[in-house]
Please model this.
Amino acid sequence: MTQMHADTDTTYWSRDYWLGHCEGFRVDGPRGRVGFVETVLGQEGEPEALVVRGGILGSRVLLVPIAAVEDVRPRAERILIRDEDTVAP
Model:
């Protein structure tokens, strides 16, 4: 289900569109900032996972499955994930 927020001015864009074009977006989990999206994996229009770089000096790389994404906030350039424990190093 696509969630839309007041900060989304282009409601006609789908969740998959924004997930496929979210390089540079900040990724937050229940405990705070996880990192920033470095790359989106998957076919055009069908994202499968996000490669997220975080940690001290961006030295940690995580693979976030699209199923772990709770919400996308395009205007704020934020991705919210459900649980950091579902993320693979």
Q: What stands out?
A: The CA atoms of residues 35 and 58 lie 8 Å apart.
